[in-house]
Predict the 3D structure of the following.
Amino acid sequence: MDRASETPQERLRRLRDEIKRTVDYRSFYLRYCPEARQAGARLLSLCPIPSHGHSGQGTPSLSIDTQHGLFNCFSRGEGGDLITFYELMHGVNFARAVRELARELGLTGRRPRQPPLVQRAAPDDAGPEALEPLDAERTTEICEVFLRVCRGEDQLEGVRYLARRGIGPETTRRAGVAYFPRRAYRRVMRRMLDAFPGEELQRSGLFNRRAHLTFYRHRLLFPFLVEGRARYLQARTTAPGVEPRWHNMRGGVPALYNADALAELPTGAVVYLVEGFTDTLTLAARGFAAVGLVGAGGLKEEWLAPLARFRVVAALDPDAAGRRAAARYAEMFSRRRMRLASVELPSDINDFFRHHPSASLELSLLAEAALEESE
Ligand SMILES: [Zn+2]
């Protein structure tokens, strides 16, 4: 039973049962009846119950079944279990008898110490015993339902988070971004458990071994849409100071982020290759066509073919890693007889757009120059 939700009565009954499982009946009764003598499976004793007012002499009237812990006073026709005996001996009620006996036996009745929710929600370490990943179709179904469930919750914090980064609600909606507030965590978790077997949720990485939703601190969800369906998702924390900032399902990133946007574009259009969701959506919000590299591993060979009909411009972070990546990707492109132009902005794209009123024009000019140079 879920101890967090038990009533005081249920808790007392549970403690009573624990006492009976733990106590040694014989020594319990012998404490009160040190003169008791063994008679077969029973103890026989003068009855010490104060309210019975026995003289303390004569024939023993108390019979104790030490196997089941029951007592009976033949003289007064009163009997019961050890809790009742304790009540009678100490003149206390049931609740107090249970609490005192439990304390004596070291049964606190408190919930066994549970790690905090943030720990119970932690993703599993991918060990050698990690479960087999789920196939792509089932993963997609889980993603789709998860996003739908999350969209049923209050989106405000997530929408605001992106709006502060210059990404408006229309772009957010088109990108299929979803959010749920932490207070909805248990409800979202239950809905997912209603929709899928726990084992599948765990194999997808949405749930962990403790049967908890792993998206606890990371609740701003970015789906990878391929032909309109979410095949995979990564989530970001919106709280400062949370590391890692990203969390994802199991399995590899299936595509460039926002790759679906390419389908509508005319051949020869300029497409920006950037790092991360925020930069991708920052450009999308300004009407640029952009696809994002997300997660470790970078650009995959099989993602290049869909880019072949466009003029691709890399706009990666202006640091050593970004420059190395741009050079490596340019080589990958040229091996396929494709060209990759590259621009370097003074900061990452999101920053650049937030701090330069003419950012759109500047980026377009830089891109045109880089494309001419590469052709
Ligand atoms: Zn008695």
In short: The first strand starts at residue 37 and ends at 39.
